[in-house]
Amino acid sequence: MACVSCERLVAASDNGIVCGLCLSRLPCLPSPQCDRCGHPRRAGECAWCELLPPYVRAARSVCWLPGVASSEIVHALKYGGWTRVAGEMALRMSRLAWPADVVEERAALIPVPLSRSRQRERGYNQSGLLACALAEHWNVPVWNDAIRRCRDTRSQTELTPGERLGNLAGSIAASESRSKDVAGAHLVIVDDVVTTAATLNACAKALFEGGARIISYVTFGRARASGDRL
Ligand SMILES: [Zn+2]
Ligand SMILES: [Zn+2]
């Protein structure tokens, strides 16, 4: 089996997807970082925090996208059907540093839901795989049923940021079945990648309106914004 990034052979005893060298070279977000949004900090106000609604406590991501190995890993999880790579991604997500209150309060992990048709097509929800693997490290439950897609949305990658918001408006709702658990809770939403935070924000809004007290985000990749230092 060849590494998805560098095409060197990966030992069978390894995870079989990406070689150790490529994993060690992931373009991790540099420190110092904003305590709230986890974005590399520059002098002055934090532009990335402005993407987040006030009830979002903190956000963390492992590495930049696009980047060496990170792009191939995310692509493999999403489109290659190589679900084993989720374990390597979740391990790195589990090591991220958080404000103490987030660690104390986080009650459950909430994967970003796929539409029913896309999940059928793909056979799995990549965010759900990451959440399940991460839950074992953090020892918290995964609530797959807390939010759901109300209708199919066009693939976000085909849209401009403005179109993304319109496309998402009203597309995600909290489920009745979890309303008692969600009430008053600090929940952590899990996704593979954050770009404009539009999808995560739509999920957070649904949870907040469903009674959640506070929400945090964790992703493997984060899109570079113009001006970010490498
Ligand atoms: Zn490699
Ligand atoms: Zn910030």
The backbone outline, from C-alpha atoms, is globular
**What is the string of helix and strand elements?**
HEHHHEHHEHEHEHE
Number of helices: 9
Question: Structural class, from helix and strand content?
Answer: alpha/beta
Radius of gyration: 17 Å
Ligand kinds: zinc ion
> How far apart are the termini?
31 Å
The number of strands is: 6
How many distinct domains?
1
Ranges with pLDDT <50 over ≥5 residues?
none
Assign the CATH topology: Rossmann fold
* Overall residue-averaged pLDDT value: 89
**Percent range for helical residues?**
25-40%
Largest sheet, in brief, is: 4 strands, parallel
CATH-level-2 architecture: 3-Layer(aba) Sandwich
Brief digest:
The protein has 230 residues and is α/β, with parallel strands linked by helices. The chain has helices at 20-24, 70-79, 85-94, 100-105, 116-122, 126-138, 161-168, 179-182, 198-209; strands at 56-65, 106-111, 147-149, 172-174, 186-194, 214-223.
Descriptive notes:
With 230 residues, the protein is an alpha/beta fold. It has a single domain (28-223), classed as Rossmann fold. It has helices at residues 20-24, 70-79, 85-94, 100-105, 116-122, 126-138, 161-168, 179-182, 198-209, and strands spanning 56-65, 106-111, 147-149, 172-174, 186-194, 214-223. The strands form 2 sheets. Strands 1-6-5-2 form a 4-stranded parallel sheet, with helices on both faces. α3 (85-94) crosses α6 (126-138). It starts with 19 loop residues before the first helix and ends in a 7-residue tail after the last strand. The site of one zinc ion (ZN) has 7 residues, from loops.
